Amino acid sequence: MRILIQRARIVQGDRVSEPIDVLVEDGLIQRVGSGLPTAGGTTVWESPNLHLSAGWFDLGTQTGDPGLEHREDLHTALEAAASGGFTAVAPYPNTHPAIHAKSEVLYLKNKSVGHAVSVYPIGAVSVHAEGKDLAELYDMHTAGAVAFADGPRGLPDAGLLLRALQYTEAFHGLVIDQPMDAAVAHGGQMHEGLLSTQLGLRGIPALAEELAIQRDLSLLRYAGGRLHLYGVSTAAGVELVRRAKAAGLQLSCSAAVANVCFTDDQLHDFDANWKLIPPLRSETDRAALVAGLADGTIDCLCSNHTPLDEEAKNVEFPYAEFGMIALETALPLSCMHLAAALGWPTLVRAWTEAPRRMLGLPIPEIREGARADLTAFDPSMSWVLQPDLLHSRSRNTPFLGATLSGKVIGIISQGQSAGK
């Protein structure tokens, strides 16, 4: 494999370089410079506004493998990730069976061998991800689990979260909770606000997230350990995290890209593809998420990729399941809605460095001699998302037929390439 990436603006650290060439051969960055010559057998990647960054990383990707492969198996998930510019994913464990023991962690790692996209399994906090008995966290850690969560259902049992924080502290493990007080959110279909009232849909109040975060922070102060809040979506939640970090707690948090780009206004026509957890919220909340990313309160972005079959989505809105596929649209949405507000260094850091740093993984560098872990994209290139372009097995996205700006040119990782 010999690839010459021509006249790319390298986004790394706090700067965006002038256009420069990068030569990758046999999985290594061999040369970085201007006007590098092409030789026989060299594949050239070029585009009018080509950008190059470290490989993008998605935390909390949902797949159906094992058990729900009709929605998404590991192969289609990794193909979708590669198409979307991701070189690594850390999948949630809420499969059937759940990733709750050493054997399931090894299953994911072994099944992903040979693909350009790396898989870093997240193990379940509890047996079967049912929120009751603590799973064998240390065994999963030694097998390669990079963190522990029970998936989008969160950890409703305070005692379970307390024990998980205490147990994982011994090996510096990371516990992930998706904050939502299920009792307060019970039966909610969308963000509680003026629009939910107008549409006659039961709302999910911002209070449901705020209460859950307050509980989690109290437990973290008491128990110690490391905690990640996945998918913070409210202004109150961002402020709670900001204060907790200032107080020195070992805390990180993420936001779903859809929540940072859109508001509950998208639900005017009852399109179930916009029915998400966390729900799209108000413009005040969305602006707070952008501000949180800008000042570092929110560490990273996530796609919140949730593949669902036709029967789960193509029903009346109250009966539809929550979620959309997002691996293949996360980059264009970031280009269209976030790059101008945040700047490329901050945006790329949220997709590349921050999640790896939280998980204790090496951060790729773009320099001569380094192993190539790269995402090449053109933020100005327009394209239409057609069904035949999707690599995901599911089709639950509101963007089919939409014109998007921001196109992945290719990825290079694990000594392989995918794309142009």
| Residues in helices, as a percent range | 25-40%
Radius of gyration: 21 Å
User: What is the end-to-end distance?
Assistant: 13 Å
Q: Which residues form runs of ≥5 with pLDDT under 50? A: none
Strand content: 15-25%
Under the CATH scheme, which class of the largest domain? Alpha Beta
Helix and strand layout, with pairings?
Elements: E1 2-12, E2 15-16, E3 20-25, E4 28-33, E5 43-45, E6 51-54, E7 56-61, H1 74-83, E8 86-91, H2 102-111, E9 118-119, E10 122-124, H3 137-143, E11 147-149, H4 158-169, E12 174-177, H5 182-185, E13 190-191, H6 194-199, E14 203-204, H7 206-223, E15 226-229, H8 235-246, E16 251-256, H9 257-261, H10 283-295, E17 300-302, H11 310-313, H12 330-337, H13 339-342, H14 344-351, H15 353-359, E18 374-384, E19 403-413, E20 416-419
Parallel strand pairs: 1-5, 1-6, 7-8, 8-9, 10-11, 12-15, 13-14, 15-16, 16-17
Antiparallel strand pairs: 1-2, 1-3, 3-4, 6-18, 18-19, 19-20
